[in-house]
Design a protein that fits this description.
This protein has 17 helices and twelve strands. It is α/β, with parallel strands linked by helices and about 400 residues long. Helix 9 (about 200-215) packs across helix 15 (about 330-345) and helix 12 (about 275-280) crosses helix 16 (about 345-360). It starts with a strand and ends in an 8-residue tail after the last helix. Residues about 55-60 and about 385-389 have low confidence and may be disordered.
């Protein structure tokens, strides 16, 4: 069986790699082509071009790269036509992936298609499900409430669990070792996560700095994890922050160190995104904030259908995690929420309950999501006898 996979972000690369591992366990000899990152490469796929070319977000951010992206869309569709795979599996990055599928389906109307990560039609732009259904047959959903939205648009859909629920958490010994290694024993510890993209850090970094300068927590220390490509930018950002920030560059420390940092933190101030689920997995209470580019905020802000964008709130069906999005992303209102969380009390207890419920609902303790996703793909294809076997 030959499958063509497309991932455009690091999170998609991780999902794709786990799916590939699951497929290899169930279908020995399965082969892969497509676009992905280092994790998918480690599972045996050579990317057509660097995945980083697709790692952009927001309407305003996409516009300057329109023509290079258009060329990559055409090249990817042509590669699918040459490969004649049993199915194309697109992973998140819908703006790119659906355009590829439109061209690929035009060349081969019988092409089987799977999309991994349901679009958040429950949050905004509900018409996206109907648009996606023109080119996608089957959807793999990360969140338990998503399948009905996809099925209503005419696609089959399975909830396969969220990968964060299957990841290990730091032990008490690992947490203690982390604090000792970085000189953090006994100190109140705040994890600060201003995002992984340049634009996010540029917009959120100054606000987060103001928040930190507005806190009154004796002996407070900061830990700031960052991806390798943004480490220099983050180090420059935190140079004048209080709390003697410890920057954890993903290129310099193993994943276990980041995991220990999440477990060691008393609380976190984080950009909106899936990091809220990583924090929930570690049991670390959080305050969420986010500010988009002005054009993106103006457009998306008018389309939102929900009163919270934090996944812990949505999955747990609570509003336990305080969030400050768009115009509300201001230091003078964020700082009191962080201060209250570090002080403990009812708000912290409510978050702890919501985080535990979230992890249960996302599949903690069950079969690995990558394997569940692989079973779902094979079920849709009817087993290993599909085209391309």
């Amino acid at each position: 069986m030959r499958l063509f996979l497309i991932a455009g972000e690091p999170s998609g690369d991780a999902l794709g790699a786990a799916l590939m591992a699951g497929l290899k366990a169930l279908v020995p000899g399965v082969a892969f082509e497509g676009v992905g990152g280092p994790l998918m490469a480690a599972e045996g796929m050579e990317s057509l071009f660097p995945m980083e070319e697709l790692s952009i977000m927001g309407l305003a951010e996409i516009l300057p790269k329109y023509f290079p992206l258009k060329r990559r869309i055409r090249e990817t569709a042509e590669a699918i036509a040459r490969a004649q795979p049993a199915a194309v599996i697109t992973i998140d990055s819908p703006d790119f992936c659906l355009r590829v599928l439109a061209l690929a389906r035009a060349a081969d109307p019988g092409l089987k298609t799977v999309h991994y990560v349901a679009p958040s039609v429950w949050a905004w732009r509900p018409g996206r499900a109907m648009k996606m259904a023109r080119y996608v047959d089957h959807v793999l959903a990360l969140l338990p409430f998503e399948p009905p939205h996809m099925q209503a648009a005419g696609m089959s859909c399975d909830f396969v669990g969220h990968p964060v629920a299957a990841e290990p958490v730091a032990s008490e010994a690992e947490v203690a070792a982390f604090r000792a290694e970085y000189g953090l024993e006994g100190a109140p510890l705040l994890l600060v996560l201003p995002g992984s993209r340049r634009g996010e850090i540029e917009r959120l970094g100054p606000v987060f700095g103001e928040v930190l300068r507005g806190l009154s927590v004796p002996g407070l220390r900061l830990v700031v994890p960052t991806v390798a490509s943004r480490a220099g930018q983050v180090r420059a950002l935190v140079a004048d922050w209080p709390g003697a920030p410890v920057v954890l560059d993903a290129a310099e420390v193993p994943v276990a160190v980041k995991r220990a940092a999440f477990g060691a933190a008393d609380a976190a101030l984080a950009a909106s995104g899936t990091v809220s689920l990583e924090l929930a997995a570690a049991g670390t209470p959080m305050v969420i904030a986010y500010r988009m580019a002005a054009l993106s905020q103006a457009i998306i802000g008018r389309m939102l259908k929900i009163d919270t964008v934090t996944l812990v709130n949505l999955v747990s069906e609570t509003r336990a995690v305080p969030e400050f999005i768009g115009p509300a992303c201001r230091a003078e209102v964020i700082a009191p929420a962080v201060q209250a969380l570090l002080a403990g009390g009812p708000s912290r207890a409510a978050q702890e309950a919501a985080m535990a419920l979230t992890m249960d609902r996302l599949g903690r303790g069950g079969e690995a999501p990558g394997l569940r996703a692989a079973r779902s793909v094979l079920g849709y294809l009817g087993g290993p006898g599909a085209r391309g076997d």
